[in-house]
Every structure is written in structure tokens, then in C-alpha cells.
Amino acid sequence: MTKQTHIYRLHPISVQTCCQLLAVTLLVLASTFPAKAQFINGSFIKGCNLAWENGNYNTWLGLDPTQPTWGVTYNSGDLNSYMANMHNMGITVLRVWVNEGDMGDTVNGSDYVTGVTSTWSSNFANMVQLASNNGIALYVTLNNGRADWLNNPAQAASYLNNALIPLIKQYKGNSAIFAIDLMNEIDGVVGGPLGNYGSGPTWAQAQSYIKTFAAAIHSADPGRKVSCSTGWHQWNNLSNFKGLGLDFYDFHNYQDTPSFPSASSLGMDKPIYIGECGQGTQSWNDSIQNTCELDALNSAFSQGYAGVGIWDYAYAGSTEVFSMINPNGTNRPVCATIQNWKAGGGGGGSNLISNGTYTIVGQNSGMALDDPGSSTADGTKMDQWTVNGGNNQKWQLINEGNNVVELVNVASGKALDVPNNSTTAGTDIDQWDVNGGNNQRWTVVSKGGGYYELVNVNSGMALDVVGASKTAGALIDQWNVSGNANQLWKFQ
């Protein structure tokens, strides 16, 4: 064969044409990548809130000075367990409230703060140590709703000088403290349409309070980050916080499907953190909660924010609609979503099946993939059953990218799992606590007609109805990929 030589003639182009081509290229690249974020600590923050422990609003770290008989309810073991679970989800920043209702403060007859109790100091120190042990930094919110401190600067100064600044100096440079939030949703105590729509201090008084406290903290610890959160008007109030010496801005948002404006469009000069984010619907609903937090993470990252703080972790026994855990202490599906979400690649994109809650129905039998008896026990073997709409037949699908998904049962909060990382054909499929292992990850493969194979990432075997049974109660196993109808599933 004769070797052929190809000669290509290069045509010169003008500088103007080069510039035009470069401009087009930059526009294409700009549309490909998310808005440039201003990060607070070098990376997007996946955070959450545990404002107070075990539902004990103003007694969890120290005594309420107005109700000392209520005692102190701090539980180091519980808090350590909660933080360990957060760490497993990839949470790096935890927002806590530490002086709500003057908790832990000592006060005189004129309601001026004279110091803090030794019990509060000891519990706070333990909390900081637990955070450090679990790879978490605390976003410390000082108080909630102190309108009187805005009206009375001398009273505010008593807290600043006798309680706060000694604390700041004691923990100077401590990396287990992420930042200080001067007051939770300070706009809630400000009167008027840009505040609480009612009566209260003016914005000028609030701004003076913020500026004074921020300057004092920075004087005591120049490296300590300071913010002050706003909640009543989402991002629309942020301009009131500009120029007050804050290191970043913090607004709160409650919508079922959050969609944020680009951070750059808000005209702020520092990073913006969404310190609280939760669903708007006031009812317990795993699907709404999961969609809310997934959309919040994706929207915040793509629109250039510094991070999102999920509201809230709550505690075992809680029936609060925002709780990240079930009353029995197990994780709700949102925990797996948070765990698997990664900035720039976590939750969305061109996946075959979108994130959401589905009933998974077999082609061969027409029956649903089912958690028998709505069991919440680890190791429960999955079966197929007549479609009935129960939560034990609903699965939260969480995309991890490249069509790899995790499937979490809505009734149990546990993941579809190949026990013991088995690679043996015929191993029965069970459910287990979400752990992110490859034995809980499944590759979605389209087989046409709206049906898919689910191939386990660890074993390479397909989700399979044993013996191609059409009987309710037949077990689900893994088997060599065959393309047969008992290995094909529809998501509906």
C-alpha cells in the first residue's frame, strides 16, 4: 500500500477574528461551569444545624437564669453520636445556639450579664472537643431575639465584655470554631416592612449593634470570622449588613424547591452562606425534604454561594418535619442524599433517571420491589409484592454520577444492599444502614421500553427476582446479567 502524505494549508486570520473566536469560546466555557463562588474556607460548605440538643431549647448547655429549676440537660454521649453521623454524611460545619434565653449567663437584678457559669463553660468546652474529634467546626450563634440589647447598648455591652470577649480570647485561633453568628435572624427584632413588619428597634440600631460586636471580636481574635444571620426576607435584606465589618453574609431560606439568584447579582462584597435551609411544607414528607435539600445544594453551588446549612439534624424522638432523622433514630433518606452529594457532581446532570422517589416495578411479575412488613431492621431480605402505594414500596433514588445510584427505602431509611459485599450469584438482597459502600451502589442500564437493569457496582450482578417468580413474596437476589424480564425494572 502506498503511503499517502496529506498537506494542509493554513489560512491566516485577522486579530479581530481571533478575538471574536476567543470571545465565543469564553462564552461557551462560562455556560459550562457554575458561577464563580466566593468560598469562606476554600471550599463549598456542606453544613447543617443542631441549634440545641435533644429539643432542650434553653437548658442544654447551662442553666436558664430565670428558670434554674429546669436544670441542665447536656448529654455528651448523644452529641458525640450525632456529630459522628454528621461526619459520615460529609458535614463540615455545624451551627449551634449557645446563649438563647440567657442560657449559661449570670445576670444581676438589672438584667445585666456579669459572666457565665462554670457548668456552661465546661459543657461548651466539651462540645468544642467533640467537634474537633469528629472533624466538624462549630458555627456559634450567640442568642435569639434580644431586641432589648439593640435598644440598650449598655446592657448589650455587659454581655459583650463579661461573657463573649473572654470566650473569644479563650478559644482564639481554635479551628474547631468556624465562625460567630451575632444573633439568629436579627431582622426578626427589627420593626417595619424590612424587618418583622411590626414594631421593634430600627435598622440603624441593629447595624450599630452588629458593627460594635464584630469590631470587638476581631480585636480580641483577628482571625475569627463573624456574621449575623437574616431570615425574614431571604436574600433581600442582605444590603443592610454591608459595610459593618462582617466576614461573610448569612440568610435563611424555606422553600420546597429552592432556586437562588446568582450570588454575584446580589451586589455583596463578601461570601454568602445559606445558614438555614428547609422545606416550606409543614408536614413530614421524605420526598419533599429530600428534593428541597438536594435542590438547595445544587442551586447554591451553581449560583456561586459559599455553602448550605441544612435545617436541621434534630434528635431521636423528634417529630419535627425538618428532622434529618426518624423518631427511632435512623437516618431519613435525605441523609443519604447529603452524604452522596458532591460539589459540582452530586445530584443531577444527564442521568437516565432523575433524583426522586419511585416505586420500582418488575417487568416479569408486575410487582413492586418491597421491604416486607415495612421492617426497619438491618438485614431484612427484600421481596416483590403487589403494588399498593406503601412507603415500604417507595425508594429514594439518589444519583452519584455516571448513572450510578443509591436506593433508600422510604419506610426504613435503609439502603438496598448486597450483604457482606458478596459476589456470589444467588445472594439474597437485603437492606442496611446507608454506608456509601459499592455493595449499596447500582448502575442503571437502559434496556428500552422504559425498563432498566440495576447492576451492583461491587459484584457486577443484576437485581433479580429469584426463579423468575410471579408470586407475591418471592425474594430478590443478585444474578449474572441475562437481560431476562425478571431482571428488568420500571421506575414509576
Concise summary:
By secondary structure, the chain is of the alpha/beta class. Helices cover 23% and strands 21% of the residues. It contains 8 helices and 23 strands.
List keywords for this structure.
Trefoil (Acidic Fibroblast Growth Factor, subunit A); 2 domains; TIM Barrel; 23% helix; nine-stranded parallel sheet; alpha/beta; disordered N terminus; 492 residues; six-stranded antiparallel sheet
Explain this structure.
By secondary structure, the chain is of the alpha/beta class. It folds into 2 domains: 296 residues, Glycosidases (TIM Barrel, Alpha-Beta Barrel), CATH 3.20.20; 136 residues, Trefoil (Trefoil (Acidic Fibroblast Growth Factor, subunit A)). The chain has 8 helices and 23 strands. The chain has a 9-stranded parallel sheet with strand order 7-6-5-2-1-11-10-9-8. A 6-stranded antiparallel sheet has the order 20-19-16-15-12-23. The radius of gyration is 27 Å and the shape is elongated. The termini are far apart.
